[in-house]
Amino acid sequence: MGRIDHTTTLLELAGLVAGALERANITSTLSGGAVVSIYTDNEYESHDLDFITSERNSEIAVALAPLGFKSEPGTRAFSHPDTDYFVEFPPGPLGLGETVIDHSDAAVMQTRYGRLRLLTPTQSTMDRLASEGAEASLVTRVKASAGRK
User: Fold this and answer.
1) Which of 13, 35, 47, 128 has the greatest number of CB atoms lying within 10 Å of its CB?
2) Are the CB atoms for 104 and 27 separated by under 8 Å?
3) DSSP secondary structure code for residue 59 in this structure
């Protein structure tokens, strides 16, 4: 198992976390901006890793403790004292907008620290578009409600 420090890359950290989760029999898939960062060699820079899983936070905490991660109280986020990256666990199911996808339909990338399951490039694009659509929809609703007194 590798040591996490300020030189650990996002891909290395994703591999370490995925490996720890897999050893704990926790099924998860990396999604969000971190996937874009990986596929674009950090042309898009993300500062968090979103692993989608339905596992309980307490089980995730046990799996990540050997890596030095601590749970952020009241959240599904974990921090590490030697990296600026946060690791978050949005609850499952894995989905793209309204479409639920199986973890087995995601891509698998072998890292030096273990197997990393992540969205495919196409799924990642759909995820980003769905996310942008949700944000745009929220902005539209807020603007509309602000006009009402």
Assistant:
1) 35
2) no
3) H
Distance from the Cα of residue 139 to its chain's centroid: 24
* Whole-number Å distance between alpha carbons of 65 and 58: 11
Rounded to whole angstroms, how far apart are CA atoms 71 and 81? Answer: 12
Backbone angles phi, psi at 86, to 5 degrees: -100, 150
Q: Which residues contact 120 (CB under 8 A, 6 or more apart)?
A: 106, 107
Cα angle 106, 111, 112 (rounded to 5 degrees) comes to 160
How far, in Å, CA of 87 to CA of 84, rounded? Answer: 10
Write out the E strands in 28-76. Answer: 29-31, 48-52, 70-71
SS3 6: coil
| pLDDT tens-place string over residues 76-102 | 999 999 999 999 999 888 888 788 889
Q: How far apart are CA 110 and CA 129, in angstroms?
A: 26
